[in-house]
Amino acid sequence: MVVLDVSIVNVALPSMQRDLHFSLANAQWVVNAYVLTFAGFLLLGGRTADLFGRRRVYLAGLALFTVASIGAGLATNGTQMVAVRAVQGIGGAILSPATLTIIVTTFRGPRLPKALGTWSAVAGAGGAVGGL
């Protein structure tokens, strides 16, 4: 879901631009707000999982991402949409490294490469499918 959200919004941008009265330049911020906060908080998300526990941080990131996703669906103007997309990016930045640390600590030996490969394949497919 985290990777999918980067590209899936591109399909809806023309409708968002029309319905939320965005200029083309402002519509780009719907994508940029997510990507910038995701990238900016990614290292912090991983460190937070180390300090406060993987499960707790995973659930917090999932909750933040979910609430922001609902907020995006309920946004009535461009400012709200950009703001909740930024919050989604923060939630994704918390969620993504916590997911990887859970996989790395859960799977051992020959099962670890398979688990990481599956996670990578699903993440890659999510990014590819989002544009359809």
Automatic annotation (TrEMBL):
Subcellular compartments: Cell membrane
Domain Major facilitator superfamily (MFS) profile per the UniProt entry, residue ranges: 1-132
Regions that span the bilayer: 20-45, 57-76, 82-104
Listed InterPro entries: MFS, MFS_dom, MFS_trans_sf, Sugar_transporter_CS
Gene Ontology cellular component annotations, sorted alphabetically: plasma membrane
Keyword Membrane (UniProt): yes
Gene3D superfamilies reported for this sequence: Multidrug resistance protein D
Entry-linked Pfam families: MFS_1 (PF07690)
Topology with respect to the bilayer: Multi-pass membrane protein
Single GO molecular function: transmembrane transporter activity
The keyword Electron transport is annotated on this UniProt entry: no
Keywords for the protein's UniProt record, in alphabetical order: Cell membrane, Membrane, Transmembrane, Transmembrane helix, Transport
PANTHER family, alphabetized: BLR6921 PROTEIN (PTHR42718:SF46), MAJOR FACILITATOR SUPERFAMILY MULTIDRUG TRANSPORTER MFSC (PTHR42718)
Name of the protein in its database record: Major facilitator superfamily MFS-1
